[in-house]
Amino acid sequence: MRKPKIERPEEQQRFETFLRSRQLKLTGERLELVEEVFGQPHHFDADQLHMALKQKGKAISRATVYRTLDLLVQCGLVRKSSFGDQFAHYEAVRSNEHHDHLICLNCDAIIEFFRPDLEALQEQICREFSFKPMHHSHQIFGLCKACQGQATDDSALAHRLSQLNT
């Protein structure tokens, strides 16, 4: 397989160094995956990534997609999140900028937001409790604007909500 020219050489170098430290190689398939991951404008799951590669004529197995995503998460190039459904969602880490999520329980839309006032409040709370924060994830589940105007299956929404609490 021809090694693609990656558009983000710093990520390629970081991933290659990470792989070498684990006696693994940066194969053409892994490089294709890094390119595709950083080409995704939004959150995605492994099957969506696999399908996008397949549509571009890339013959990369689903197992390779899952294994490489796990390596990218370990390397810190990809963030893995759970939004209350059965899938792990991924996003390329493009900077150290933090953001939070609004998740629609009906259509699964994921809306990213950043509010400095919310971050400041969380920092204040940590100071009040002499707590040193290392990581946080803020997710709000509900209905997006488009779904608020539609008829929704209340039992399906109740089931989704019950799954969040388990």
Structure description:
This protein folds into two domains: 1-95, Winged helix-like DNA-binding domain superfamily/Winged helix DNA-binding domain (Arc Repressor Mutant, subunit A); 97-166, Ferric-uptake regulator, C-terminal dimerisarion domain (Dna Ligase, domain 1, 2-Layer Sandwich), CATH 3.30.1490.190. The chain is 46% helix and 14% strand. The chain has helices at 9-21, 28-39, 46-55, 62-75, 116-128, 145-148, 154-164, and strands at residues 78-82, 88-92, 100-104, 110-113, 139-142. Helix 3 (46-55) crosses helix 4 (62-75). It is globular and about 45 Å long. The termini are far apart.
Instruction: Output the CATH class name of the largest domain.
Output: Mainly Alpha
How would a crystallographer describe the biggest sheet? 3 strands, mixed
Q: What is the SS-derived class?
A: alpha+beta
Overall number of structural domains: 2
The count of strands amounts to 5
| Poorly predicted regions | 1-5
Question: Helical segment tally?
Answer: 7
Strand content: 5-15%
Strand sequence of the main sheet, in spatial order? 4-3-5
Oligomer status: single chain
Indicate the CATH architecture of the largest domain: Orthogonal Bundle
* Terminal CA distance: 43 Å
